Predict the 3D structure of the following.
Amino acid sequence: MGIRLIKSYARSWVGAADYLISQIEAEKVRKGQLLWIDAQCDGDAVSYCYLVAYWDDAFKTTEGVGTIKYDLQNAASSWESFYDHAVNVIKFLQPKNVISITGSTSVPPVTVLFVFYYEDAPAASQDIRHCAVEKLSWESAATHIIYELESKGAKAGQLIGIDAHNNLKEGSGRFAAFWNASLPALGDLRKDDYLKRVSKNDMDSWADQYEFARNHIQNVNYSHPIAVFGATSCVNMSTASTAVSWFTYGLISAAGNGVTNVFYAEDKVSKVELDKEKMEEKNFVADTQDKRFVNANSTAIEQKWMTSEEKTATTSSVFNFTHKEGVTLTPNATFTFGLPEGAEAALGLSLAFTKELTWQQTDSVMKSVTNKNTYEESFIIPPEHVAVCRVYTDRTELTAPYTMTFKSGRTSTGTWTGKKDVVNMLPVFFPINTSEEVIEEKLKTLRRH
């Protein structure tokens, strides 16, 4: 189906979070499929607490559903104290287990901040950093949080998430961003327009706000692998409202405007690595066929054993990538691929071989013909003889697990296969009146059959 969402609301944040998690478990959402969990509140004394989870049911993973936990701060404390506490939680979590960091106004003056994560063995302490921007305009705040991330040294491959929240429903727009400086830096956030954003700021219901985010993620995902760094909504101001029934359209938005921002990247492959330690090589005859040439003349003739059309396929090297788990590349995605030392010679390619490849997806398999050589061979057929040419294909096949690392830090794994085919010919000569039975019996004795 693609991008889906699960909504929850309750009179308490604990009640909303526990119900959301029970719904995620009921849907059997697997680890790796959750994109973001976001918190909102209308900011009134009688407000409900809203949570929404976005997930990708087409994301391939062999992981189980996992156990989702959360750390909740719910107090009349400063945002900076909340952020510092969140950093101390995240720094001991394995990066793949962090789902989102999301905050909201609550019953004034109380605010909340969640860290949602999967339960797992703790990680060694990591360098988790954060920054925040608050502006009178939500648009200005959203623009400046990206500049602030860049100025603080955050890089692609390190970004955890960006969340929108405020102190009061009438308050300024605030965004907070978190990143893991212990992870490899895979490029600049703004270079080549990598980190993107779309927003919606109107009087539509929360349900409409969520659908805006879901639809945008889905549409981008059709043409590019998408990395989501925040699908985050917040109450905006207390002007006239559109109170919408839960039973008709979804959650109630009774406080006026809502604002939703989706921070995302059209993800690109940063590097492709083969596991050389697990590389296997096989050599075998892949195909045989017979060709016949008759010389009924009284003199010998020279015969070429290939037509011009066949020459281009005499020697070829082909790469296949079969996707198994993780990010799925979309058709026509490009990436640079190089072979590890030793594999080039086995496939008849030059040393330090690298090539720009294009993913052509058919049942999750990418095929790319990367190398072809041709040669001619001729032989002399004696007078009044038949030449039976046994044409065979010698194949060298290498297989190895591959890992594609994307600019976001996400990965895609599967099996790479490299093949080299060399077509050869072995001629056998028979007098022109030799019976078929004799010819067939002789061919059976040949080394290649």
